[in-house]
Amino acid sequence: MDIKGNSLYSQMQSMSLQAMGNKLPTTGADAIGVDGIPANSVGKINQSTSNFGDMLSSALNNVNELQSDAGDKKKAFEMGDTSVTLAEVMIASSKSGIALDATVQIRNKFVEAYKEIMSMPV
Questions:
Q1: Which PANTHER family does the record associate with it (predicted)?
Q2: What is the pTM of this model?
Q3: Residue 2: pLDDT band with limits 50, 70, 90
Q4: Residue 56: burial class (beta carbons within 10 Å; 0-12, 13-18, 19+)
């Protein structure tokens, strides 16, 4: 999975500010950020145009590609293709397994967060 940590962190940070009712700092010199601290000292918020749904979809597609690549290499090795080594098969299988485990953990965190949000009083 090719998720950039800084981008994800800055998106979570901006969502947190929006959820607390604070306005996002502007890029001007007189912008005020969290707790009255100038926005320049807080740091820049990522202005990327990709949204969370696109990023999640891309990550899931990447996991799917890793799974299918590992399956193809396994099949080729089992059929006796000499261009595929056992090491390549094991590495592809491990990559796909790790990616799937990470995806399951992310899903579990989303479900946990959803349940927590739904149990909040309105």
A1: FLAGELLAR HOOK-BASAL BODY COMPLEX PROTEIN FLIE, PTHR34653
A2: 0.56
A3: very low
A4: middle
